[in-house]
Amino acid sequence: MNSRKVLHVIERFNVAGAEIVVRDLLHLFAETPWQLHVCVLHDKGIIGTEMFEKGFPVHHLDWTKDGLDDAGVVSRMRKVIDEVQPDIIHAHNVTPWYFATRSTWGKGQSRRCATLHGFLTGEGAWKKKCLYTLLSRTAERIAIVSPRIREQLSTIPLFPLQRVEVIPNGIQTAEPADFDISSKKEELGLDKGDFVIGTVGRMFAEKNIEMQIRLMARLRDDYPRLKLVVVAKKYDYFKVLEDLVDSLGVQDQVIFTGLRRDVPELLRIFDLFVMSSFSEGTSIALLEAMAAGLPVVVSDVGGNGDVVRHGENGLLFDVHNLDQFVEQVGVLINDEKRRRQLATEARKTAETYSLESMKVKYQSFYQTIMGRHGN
């Protein structure tokens, strides 16, 4: 196959699910006939800066978030498109999809596609549904990271489900290099006898980290050596969490690490992984925790139920039921054998979500798009 160019469009290039997928695709496709570029709308971010320094083509538009009518970012994206001359423009989530479509309107040389990494939730969901309908009319193919997203798309009038393909996220399943677990625990202020509950994710309201803090308040009397480690960059939402910790008096039980680049090592010092999000696609953090051999207790939302089979490779709970969350975590704290059983099955599940599998599916995805035009 002749060399082809794909321009990925993302809103920002920090450490988060969609961004990690794009980063991994850049690495995975480096030795293939597909040449991948990235166009970042808003925040070049940590990953974007690193990838640019490594020589990967990352284009930054410096969008100031003036709204969807920002003509400046459209003009700058068109310049990038004229420079790169991509065969395919691949947008990730709705805002990049909108700008990618608007910037290529009338340009016949590029095919459009998108990956939807999550569900439509919260305020403004109906507006996004309208946008999905409009944008989908000009998309050659649409990838979704969880089968359950298809169910939601089926409720959108006129959405072309025949163009939708499920491509789950992939992860690196290799274990980290040897490191001193005791020193890592000491670095975080953990003692040898602590039972460590950990979570990894973005510090946004939809991640519902408040529920995990309330969990600690409910369990601290029965389990005084229980600790919660929250691995997430401290955005503005951190003040809400900090105030809740203070009001519940669990300052000694909750540790906020901030942004960390040693997540694979941190996972090895956890005894249990939790996630209480209101919405998830196919969570990379969850998959990485399962690959690390951790028992997991996660909210039964979005794609979590596609990954976790309740009682087999993890536990699911109702995100609006704190009592259920407390009960399930308490059961696992008290039952080491059960934790080991769940962890063994969790690791087996994670191995099916490989980077190589994701690469193969996206190659086929692109080839299908080009094939529709006889290329």
UniProtKB/TrEMBL annotation:
Residues 16-174 form the Glycosyltransferase subfamily 4-like N-terminal domain. Pfam families: Glyco_transf_4, Glycos_transf_1. Coiled coil: none annotated. CDD domains: GT4_PimA-like. Residues 183-348 form the Glycosyl transferase family domain. It comes from the Bacteria. This is Glycosyltransferase family 4 protein.
